[in-house]
């Protein structure tokens, strides 16, 4: 297995009680809640945490993109990736992912990723996503165009990476007379593309297509949902006439390790419950704007969200306890033995080959995050790599 370390880079100094006067920490929470001095310290601490992953033996680190939210401070994840390139020499840097429909010119993403790939000498993993529903409120992009914008942007970027330019592009959403990106990517024919998702039927079929065979990464989902979606990808691959490799299957989850199960629960409680109750408090219209998902995928997403409780369903469903999150398998918390067993159990059922551990989450502070990262690396990571 390949093991990567992921941080959302949440804004931990957030005045959570005061933020409750607003519908969510997404989209319309006034930016006066952000203190630039504290924000600068947050960036420094998070980059230190991720850069430290190399000497601890991780295969890679992950960053991602979100806008106008305290949930994650990376509206431009390519900038964080650039900083990590300078702080590391070996590990992969996965940008999971860039929200393709939100850009007006996909060539900028093709060029930025090519730059990063050259700067890192081929260590970039490109994660492509549509962006969650809230991003469409922030950007005023029509959510009914989400799928078509994503697919056209993806096709344009892949062609720009693999075909000598300039060439002419006349699409439904994008029009270019000279598609001719400088520089070209270091990895040939292009950086690997991963697809993070919560299990959209369309996404599984698209990612598993023999023309792509993109690694599919299930995020923020209960254990049973993770297994169901990864097996659905395997079956889709079989329907296409091939057997999916372990490297095409991945799972991302928040993890906390301590000497005992009881200690781990106690130390992780505040940070984990803040993540799922305070930072993920998306109201239904923010999570699923009209036209964003097909009816089948919407039902599936709502089932997955219901499994982790309040997230995505407003403020009336009550707070989630860490005990329930652990019981559902949405969070992995415990002693090294317990954590290893929980990950192994899913790996044995699905054959997944990539595990992304979120070792800092919610309001978890720097010291416990470092302890968690070091203990995971020393007691869990070696056994997982051997699977």
Automatic annotation (TrEMBL):
InterPro entries membership: Bact_Lucif_Oxidored (IPR050766), Luciferase-like_dom (IPR011251), Luciferase-like_sf (IPR036661)
Known EC number: 1.14.14.3
Gene Ontology terms for molecular function: alkanal monooxygenase (FMN-linked) activity
Keywords in alphabetical order: Monooxygenase, Oxidoreductase
Luciferase-like domain boundaries: 36-348
Cellular component, GO annotation: cytosol
Gene3D superfamilies registered for this protein in UniProt: Luciferase-like domain
Superkingdom of origin organism: Bacteria
Pfam families: Bac_luciferase (PF00296)
SUPFAM superfamilies named among the record's database cross-references: Bacterial luciferase-like
Protein known as: Alkanal monooxygenase alpha chain
Provenance organism: Pigmentiphaga humi
Gene field: luxA_2
């Amino acid at each position: 297995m390949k093991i990567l370390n992921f941080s959302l880079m949440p804004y931990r100094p957030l005045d959570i009680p005061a933020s409750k006067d607003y519908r969510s920490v997404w989209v319309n929470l006034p930016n006066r809640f952000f203190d630039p001095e504290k924000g600068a310290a947050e960036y420094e601490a998070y980059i230190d945490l991720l850069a430290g992953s190399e000497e601890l033996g991780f295969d890679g680190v992950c960053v991602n993109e979100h806008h106008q939210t305290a949930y994650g401070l990376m509206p431009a994840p390519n900038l964080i990736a650039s900083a990590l390139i300078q702080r590391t020499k070996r590990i992969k840097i996965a940008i999971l992912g860039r929200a393709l429909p939100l850009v007006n010119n996909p060539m900028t993403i093709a060029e930025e990723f090519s730059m990063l790939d050259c700067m890192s000498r081929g260590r970039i993993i490109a994660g492509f996503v549509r962006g969650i529903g809230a991003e469409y409120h922030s950007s005023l992009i029509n959510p009914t165009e989400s799928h078509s914008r994503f697919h056209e942007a993806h096709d344009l970027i892949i062609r720009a990476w693999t075909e000598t330019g300039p060439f002419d592009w006349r699409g439904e959403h994008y029009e270019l007379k000279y598609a001719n990106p400088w520089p070209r990517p270091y990895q040939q024919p292009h950086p690997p593309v991963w697809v993070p998702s919560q299990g959209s039927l369309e996404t599984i079929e698209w990612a598993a297509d023999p023309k792509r065979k993109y690694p599919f990464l299930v995020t923020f989902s209960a254990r049973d949902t993770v297994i169901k979606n990864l097996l659905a990808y395997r079956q889709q691959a079989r329907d296409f006439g091939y057997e999916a490799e372990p490297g095409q299957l991945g799972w991302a989850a928040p993890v906390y390790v301590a000497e005992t199960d009881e200690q781990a629960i106690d130390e992780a409680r505040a940070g984990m419950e803040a993540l799922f109750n305070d930072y993920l408090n998306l109201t239904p219209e923010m999570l699923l704007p009209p036209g964003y998902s097909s009816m089948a995928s919407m039902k599936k997403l709502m089932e997955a969200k219901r499994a982790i409780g309040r997230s995505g369903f407003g403020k009336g469903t009550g707070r989630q306890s860490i005990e329930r999150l652990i019981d559902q398998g949405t969070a992995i918390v415990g002693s090294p033995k317990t954590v290893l067993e929980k990950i192994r159990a899913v790996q044995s059922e699905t054959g997944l080959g990539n595990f992304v551990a979120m070792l800092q989450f919610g309001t978890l502070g720097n010291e416990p995050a470092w302890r968690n990262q070091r203990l995971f690396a020393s007691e869990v990571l070696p056994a997982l790599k051997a699977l």
